[in-house]
Specification:
It is built from 20 helices and 25 strands. By secondary structure, the protein is of the alpha/beta class. The N terminus is likely disordered. GO terms for molecular function: oxidoreductase activity.
Amino acid sequence: MPIWPVNKRPWIVEELNHGNYGVMRSSRYGETRGFMCCEWWCEGYWASSGYYNLCNDKPVMPSRPSSVPSIFRGLASPSSFPRNRLLISLWSLIRNTVRNSLNRSSINELPSVPEGASRVNINTDILIIGGGLAGLSVAEELNKLGLKVVIVEGEHYLGGHLIIDDTEIKDLGCGSEFIGKLSKEISDSVTVLTGVIFDGFLEDAVIGHSRDFSRLYTFNYKYLILAQGFREVPLIFPGNNTPRMITGLTMLKLTKWWGFKPRRVLVWGSDDWAVRVAMNLIQTGIEVYLGDNSVTIRSDLYRDRVDALGIKTFIGMNIVDAKDSSEGLRLVLENIRGKKAKRQRREEVVVDVLVSAVRVPVIDLPAQLNAPIVYAPEIGGLVPRRGFTGDLGLGNAYVIGDAGGLLPEHLIVRQARVTALSIGAMEDLVTKDAFDKELVDFKRDLVTTNSSYYNVILRFEQGLQGSGYYAEPNVVHAPMWATAGSIEDVENALKSANRQYLCFCEDVTLNDVLRSINVLMHGKEIKVRVLHGEEEEYKSLRLPGMERIKRVVGLGTGPCQGKLCLINTNLILSFIYQKKPSEFGLPRIRFPEASIPMATLAGGE
């Protein structure tokens, strides 16, 4: 069992069971917002709305939840400030009114921090960041080789997403049973630091801190293995500021651990994880729909299970409108348009919760290390470029599991063994022949499971025709953009861009970002559909990068540090303008991984 208040119902579940989904308010406008996720890294999102530790029994709530008066809302939008001349001229007169209306906690409502923090030095052969399937599997293999291993996990338990997954997984059996047994074995044999956030890399130190801020860690290691897994991201569609959107892993926690009982949910996404989220929710007696704007259900392993369970699906459809009502969240769905669409299909469905099971690899730490981040749609979008062993090409850093690309769980276990043996071979703990044999077997498993997995990693290692150059493709689909598929869908979706939120911390919409691009391009018109004869001009067009967009509208500057928006925005803009994600790039992902109080840093001198 996880070290979690399984038998205690957090106050949030009581609110949800009473139909009160809007338990938060947005940062900029004070709009009603919902409880989106319950993971350690999203605490910054709560803080941006003036709330702290929502999973605890006694959360800190702002004493005055209010909203910006509607007369000031347009002036306060990210695309207006600070360029709006009227706002600048009136700011001295209205600033107190606006500031008093913002949903911010007072200094007395901020979380308490220990007066003095202790410093802890950790010395190890192998430092593993992440205690999910990948981290535990590679720790098991490295421990067998006699290497000293330390695992750092931000949650207060080990196991990652499998800890709450009771479905059957290929070669592993029941997910929660497999990971529970593995967690116990690892806890008994290696050093495990749970409830510790790995913050990243300074010039002269590698730092982490405990979630209660009482300890500052400094790490010294020979090899670093990044196994942070995936992160579920919000869906983008008209009306996605609904308080009824919750991520898949959080939904499973709420229902299985704390007793949340919605009547009907729509799970959006159809890869292995999304289908298993739906299967887990069905086990709890919830009526489940499955939706995705893909041509077919993405999961090869579980596609047949969807039919066997009789799950109603909305595959090949977009969410074109959403509105909260007394009955629930009313979603309007339309089939993807284009030449192949013989007839327009339109459906409405009312659900209690929209579950986002769309996930992206967690690339924060590889990006901090300046590892190349490239677009590979076969394994989840933006991923660190790495080889079959997970080697990032930095000398002593590896990325494995979903953090290096979304692979089925049985392949992650095999990859962990390959990574461990490659390190063992360098340390003369195993023969090169033993490592080569395991690598060949792993490559064969990749090909037999899905040849695209093997092909993309081969291109990472060897590049185009062995040149080392990786040809990054254009974005052909952005799975988190639930309102667009074909060119016609994109054009239609842009009409409601002002209702599609990208950054929930700072209330930045797709319209704000598109307006910022227009400003940065000095008003030059950019067409989504490029007419004949304009191809060369369009190819040479240089759009502003994400760093410049961030500085204009504040995208990614909230306390969650862009974890819920930066990758979404990059892929959506690349999809809209048919550019490569590297042309937009990502803002520099800076230290630390999560906010650290100055008192904790001072305690570490």
